[in-house]
Structures are given as C-alpha cells and as structure tokens.
Design goal:
Cytidine Deaminase, domain 2, 5-stranded mixed beta sheet, 5 strands, globular, binds tetrahydrodeoxyuridine
Length: 134
C-alpha cells in the first residue's frame, strides 16, 4: 500500500474519532513526515466556547511536531464525508505555512471517489511571515 493510501485510511479513521457535538461535522487529517513511516493523524476537537475549537489539520500537524519534532512534511491529507471534499480553513493553512513549503501537496478526500489534489501555495499564496527585525 502506498504512503498516500495509508494516510487516507488514517485520516478517515481519525474523522470517526472527531469530537464534534456542536457542528456534527467530522474531519480527519493525516500528515506524512519525512523518515516516519506511520502518518500522524488528527481530528477536530470542538469546545463549548466555539472559538476554542481546533481543526483536524492543526491537531495532526501539532501532534506531529510533539511526537517527532519538526520534520519535512511530505504531504497532508484531509478527510470529510462530503462531496466535493472540504479544503483546509485559512487558519490551518497559516499553521501549515510554518512547517511546509508552498509546494507541499494537500490532498482532500470526501465521501466519494473524487479527490482534490492541490498545494499549500495554491490555497494560501500570501501567508503571514514574521517580519525581519530592523
Ligand atoms: N474544521 C476542521 O476540522 N478543518 C477545517 O479545515 C475546517 C473546519 C472543523 C472545525 C469544526 O469542528 C467543524 O469543522 C465545523 O467548522
């Protein structure tokens, strides 16, 4: 099985673990890190104070850093059960920018066979970057 197939399975499994009692919209994500065989998965975790909710993509990316340190991200998968598949929100894209390159592939899968394969730089061409001092 390819790394991508394994990451899609991991993202879909993570979506089933989503804690989404408010929106009932389950999202899973998986990040493939260089040198790490198993994709790191995440799901959305909602909060009664809605703004404290964390998306699946950020859960996965931050878990990857916590577990393995900062590594090159080979690709990111996001899984929902809608068609066409949902793409990551802008907040998640900004967080991805910290650990990815504009060329990092983002693959969105939904309920059907349809996939969206794009790149971080396509979805967020002008991220915020911390200004050089002076
Ligand atoms: N959500 C994600 O997990 N990823 C996104 O990119 C967009 C939205 C979650 C957050 C919330 O739990 C639910 O989907 C509805 O917004």
């Amino acid at each position: 099985m390819s790394d991508l197939d394994r990451a899609i399975i991991a993202a879909r499994a993570a979506a089933e673990r989503a804690y989404a009692p408010y929106s009932r919209f389950h999202v899973g994500a998986a990040v493939k890190l260089e040198g790490i065989d198993e994709p790191v998965a995440g799901c959305n975790v909602e909060n009664a104070s809605f703004g404290a909710t964390v998306c699946a993509e950020r859960t996965a990316i931050l878990s990857g850093v916590a577990r393995h340190g900062k590594r090159r991200v080979e690709f990111i998968v996001v899984a929902t059960s809608i068609d066409p598949p949902a793409l990551p929100c802008a907040l998640c894209l900004q967080v991805m920018t910290e650990f990815c390159t504009p060329e990092t592939p983002i693959i969105a899968v939904g309920s059907g066979e349809r996939r969206i394969e794009t790149q971080l730089g396509e979805l967020l061409p002008s991220p915020f970057v911390f200004p050089e001092s002076g």
